[in-house]
Amino acid sequence: MLNTLCFSVALLIIVLPAMAIAQKVESNKATPAITQQVANKEAQNKRLIEQAFKQWASGNGNFFDLLTEDVKWTITGRSPLSKTYIGKQQLMNETVTPLTNRLATPIVPKIRGV
């Protein structure tokens, strides 16, 4: 479940900024400058995700290093962890750290493509 969650969030980090720029492209009839801006942002996001996951795989970080301190994260459902967490520290303290501590071995991502 955590692997799927991590992949989903990583995908959103890449896709959402590009989608916002793409909407601007559509409204401005896709000028070459805006088209290049979209391509640059996508490449920048891809490098960021690849670097973060490589660091995580080598044991020098984790997916949550990508989050800002003021993140608002909602876990839906009916589990004891289901609620909205305000801030990275609350999310880490109340979900990530306790769950990670219960694992027999740490999660090590395998990047197959970004």
Ordered list of secondary-structure elements with their pairings:
Layout: H1 2-27, H2 32-57, E1 72-75, E2 83-86, H3 88-102
Helix pairs in contact: 1-2
Question: What would the keywords be for this entry?
Answer:
2 domains; mainly alpha; 59% helix; two-stranded antiparallel sheet; 114 residues
Describe this structure in words.
The protein has two domains: 1-66; 67-103, no CATH class. It contains three helices and two strands; from the N terminus they run H-H-E-E-H. A two-stranded antiparallel sheet has the order 1-2. The chain starts with a helix and ends in a 12-residue tail after the last helix. It is mainly α. The mean pLDDT is 81.
In short:
Helices cover 59% and strands 7% of the residues.
- The largest beta-sheet arranges its strands as 1-2
**What profile does the largest beta sheet have?**
2 strands, antiparallel
Q: Enumerate how many helices there are, as a single number.
A: 3
Could you name the ranges where pLDDT drops below 50 across 5 or more consecutive residues?
none
Which structural class do the helices and strands define?
Answer: mainly alpha
First-residue to last-residue Cα separation: 19 Å
Radius of gyration: 17 Å
Average pLDDT works out at 81
Give me the strand/helix succession.
HHEEH
Q: DSSP strand (E) fraction?
A: 5-15%
Instruction: Give me the count of strands.
Output: 2
Question: How would you sum up the global shape?
Answer: extended
Task: State the helicity in percent bands.
Answer: 55-70%
- Counted up, domains total 2
